[in-house]
User: What shape does this take?
Amino acid sequence: MLEVGYLNLDNPIAITCSNDDFHVHHDSHGPHGSNRFNGSAGLLILDDINLDEFSLSDVEVTINEIKTTSTLGFSVKCSRDEPLMEAARFAARNLYLMELDALSGMSAVRLSDLVKSIKRCGTTLSAKLSPEMLTEDLAINLRNSGLDIIHLNLSGMNGTGPKMVKKISDQHGPRIMALGDIGDFEDAESLLAMGADLVSLHGPDPDFADWLS
Assistant: This one.
């Protein structure tokens, strides 16, 4: 059991899926959508939500349709603060992980300020970052701001991901969730061995996710 803030995760596997992936439908082969991963992940994240385009009520509707034993979370971005604060209060009320998607060019100053504001809502918070963004100064600022998880996008790093995880882990900052090119158990194990607390998979084959967990 991994405890992060108010989250209690059964295993260190996180699955991120788009809104379309989460909607459950049936055909002759059985259920698709979130039910495909029922019980196979410690954390299930609704990904790529732009609150400049969608309302929080849209997020609520989608999450309420998810039938899973996994802990739930959602990843958002927005050019305005108030929708993010509203999302933070919603996450805290329902014990969901909230993630700030900073991959689209959010400045370090804005990210640090948002983390402080969102943490005042009592929210367990992650920030999705690229290795290029995560300077030592930013890692220290995020730790001091109360960030719970750094979701590090290591996709396409051609085997150097574990070394990057080790470098960040050695800074003793927030917990690390590593999104990488994971094709087998050894790939996931190498990230965990280098200091990742979680490994995340984007829309994986359900059998692979179940086997890995």
In short: Residues 108 and 138 are 7 Å apart (CA to CA). Residues 2-212 form a domain with the TIM Barrel fold (CATH 3.20.20.70). DSSP finds eight helices and twelve strands in the chain. The chain has one domain: 2-212.
